[in-house]
Amino acid sequence: MAFGGAGPLHACQVGALLGSRAVIFPPHASVLSAFGTLVSPPRLDLVRSAVGTLVELDWDEVEQIYAELTEEARTALVAAGLTADDIRFSFGVDMRYAGQQTEISVALAEDPRRRRDPVALGEAFAGAYLSTYGVAPSHVPVEMVNWRLVALGTALAASNRPPKSGDPAVPRGARNVRLWSDRMVPVYDRRSLSLGQRISGPALLEERETTIVVLPGWEAVVDPNDCVIATRTSDYG
What we know:
By secondary structure, this protein is α+β, with helices and mostly antiparallel strands. Helix content is about 25%, strand content about 30%. The protein starts with 6 loop residues before the first helix and ends in a 5-residue tail after the last strand.
């Protein structure tokens, strides 16, 4: 998949080098990261250190930590424009076996304050450790290192402009491209392309922020999501 300002220029060539038969050029390819930032739900990741063993876990301390973290997250997200009802919380804890210097982050299925169950915490850690390392030395004491909170707002509804229907677009001009033996290459306006329109390479599809290069031996088509899908039809170069 092509992204970034220069990505659509080189994506077919990279695809050919990788042996890929198809390349996807999504809408807003040149600003895909910025677009993702705009439509992603607001999120805060908060962490508070509190080293202790599982057998001596102080639930009152955990209660206080999460009360402070949830209040901090709620205040920040409300100030950012969310309502309190829009905010959802998920919980986690960084744990390790005693004597280790590296912990793993364990996602918890629910707020640990509800059950105050150290056995459930231990089982969640053992499962995550086994999945990561293939062993779970259950005889070794377990330590908590950090308590984590994720505060997540409601995802925004992202509506993409559907491709236009109707007659296929015609090139708005042609350009001499020395890369292809001084061949005159048709140039299309990316936004004028119709749903299902097929364009054989070589061709240039220009848009405001970038240019899609369709190599010789490739064919591009506009799909219902307004993506341009370039498929390799023969070897090039």
